[in-house]
């Protein structure tokens, strides 16, 4: 089915439907939420403004569907994910076009996001079969004071209903990074896409629909945050929340109650440049890290801390490279330098007199997502990495999330829990233990 066919299937008039109980539906509210094209400043799309009652029905459906989905053989769950991944890749062009119109993502990057997302879904299917197909067998006599009278079998079981809330800047990739681990682990999933990016995300959900997932296993809800935001995150049927975004995540974590949370929040990613650094490499990565996708990435370089002795040379190289950046529409793969939000391409460069000063500046931030170091001395790199209070440190490269199976986590206000394929699967499961009690050895042997 081509892109236009998909759009027709999920459209009602000029408004996109929401997805619940295995069907594309129109909200009883009769209202819609506009999606503004950031380039034209005009309304590009409209999505349904769902009601709390519709959320309730969706949650009930998700809860009921999850029970049978958890009993579906692991290989069958993996098979469906592989199928969804292939369909997603087939729909690269129309989904990428939506990304360009909704979030002004450069056309080339938009196409890459869709393909990368398909690859990620397949990787989750493969890794899930391995991670979830293994259990542990423990014996009681390994702990002091015990005989071998108990055998413990452990396995991973799903949590129930997972609520996934991706951000506007990667509405497809950061949706599937939550959907795929939830589904392979036997959970059902309710997706609340960002308003900017909602149509791209709904189109991606349709790929899962076309793959043939059972009704209620995956749902997609759209609406105004003021009406359904807290209602979703505090819903009694939600058993886990995976959120990527900004300060809203802190508010969610305070209200969510006793359920597992996976929160990837903001970053103030620092770049430390030492005297012996390859300045050409550092400058290229600083420009890429600070300005790609207009700096609208949580892993964008937000501050450069450079040793005084090489500061002038680095600034000169950075300025030369920034001067070559182009401004234009996203269809032409632009880098938009003039952006209104601070979540953008603003790059302060601070001179430091020693490494300790740089580390102190990095650690003074409430954020601790990523950082990077440029040096040819691996010993110094490792010592500085250990001292930096960030979830990830890149050596001789700009901060980045990928490859998508690497662990990805933030310290302090940058988040809770860790992403990455195995980490997400483990986070969306619980350990179930079954203990077999045996007679005492003397009795057993007669």
Distance between the termini: 70 Å
What would you give as the CATH superfamily of the largest domain? Aldehyde Dehydrogenase, Chain A, domain 1
Our Rg estimate from Cα atoms comes to: 24 Å
Oligomeric status: single chain
Please, how many domains?
Answer: 2
- The tally of beta strands, per DSSP, is 24
Written overview of the protein:
The model is unreliable at 335-343 (pLDDT under 50). The protein has 15 helices and 24 strands. The termini are far apart. The chain has 2 domains: 3-265 and 419-429, Aldehyde Dehydrogenase, Chain A, domain 1 (3-Layer(aba) Sandwich); 269-405, Aldehyde Dehydrogenase, Chain A, domain 2. A 6-stranded mixed sheet has the order 11-10-9-12-13-22, with helices on both faces. It has a 5-stranded parallel sheet with strand order 16-15-14-18-19, sandwiched between helices. With 446 residues, it is α/β, with parallel strands linked by helices. Helix 10 packs across helix 11 (308-323).
């Amino acid at each position: 089915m081509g892109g236009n066919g998909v759009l027709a299937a999920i459209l009602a008039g000029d408004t996109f439907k929401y997805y619940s109980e295995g069907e594309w539906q129109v909200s009883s509210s009769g209202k819609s939420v506009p999606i503004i094209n950031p380039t034209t400043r005009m309304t590009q799309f409209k999505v349904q403004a769902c009601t709390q009652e519709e959320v309730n029905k969706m949650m009930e459906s998700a809860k009921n569907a999850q029970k049978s989905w958890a009993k579906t053989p692991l290989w069958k769950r993996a098979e469906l994910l592989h199928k969804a991944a292939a369909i997603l890749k087939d729909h690269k062009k129309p989904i990428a076009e939506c990304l360009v119109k909704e979030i002004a993502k450069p056309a080339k990057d938009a196409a890459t996001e869709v393909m990368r997302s398909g690859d990620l879904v397949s990787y989750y299917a493969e890794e899930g079969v391995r991670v979830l197909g293994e259990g542990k067998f423990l014996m009681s006599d390994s702990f002091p004071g015990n005989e071998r009278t108990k055998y413990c079998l452990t396995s991973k079981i799903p949590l129930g209903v997972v609520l996934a809330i991706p951000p506007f800047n990667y509405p497809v990739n950061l949706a599937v990074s939550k959907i795929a681990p939830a589904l392979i682990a036997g959970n059902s999933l309710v997706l609340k896409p960002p308003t900017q990016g909602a149509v791209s995300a709904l189109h991606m959900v349709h790929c899962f629909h076309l793959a043939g997932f059972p009704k209620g296993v995956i749902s997609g809800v759209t609406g105004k945050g003021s009406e359904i935001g807290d209602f979703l995150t505090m819903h009694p049927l939600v058993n886990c929340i995976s959120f990527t975004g900004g300060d809203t995540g802190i508010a969610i974590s305070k209200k969510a109650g006793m359920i597992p949370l996976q929160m990837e929040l903001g970053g103030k990613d620092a770049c430390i440049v030492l005297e012996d650094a390859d300045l050409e490499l550092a400058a290229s990565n600083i420009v890429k890290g600070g300005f790609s996708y207009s700096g609208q990435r949580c892993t964008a370089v937000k501050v450069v801390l450079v040793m005084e002795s090489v500061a002038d040379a680095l600034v000169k190289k950075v300025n030369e490279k920034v001067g070559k950046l182009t401004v234009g529409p996203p269809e032409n793969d632009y880098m938009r330098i003039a952006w209104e939000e601070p979540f953008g391409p603003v790059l302060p460069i601070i001179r430091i007199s020693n490494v300790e000063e740089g580390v102190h500046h990095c650690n003074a931030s409430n954020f601790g997502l990523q950082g990077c170091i440029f040096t040819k001395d691996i010993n110094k790199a490792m010592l500085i990495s250990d001292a930096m209070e960030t979830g990830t440190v890149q050596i001789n490269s700009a901060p980045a999330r990928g490859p998508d199976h690497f662990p990805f986590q933030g310290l302090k206000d940058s988040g809770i829990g860790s992403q990455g394929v195995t980490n997400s699967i483990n986070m969306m499961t619980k350990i179930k233990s079954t203990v077999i009690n045996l007679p005492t050895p003397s009795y057993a042997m007669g």
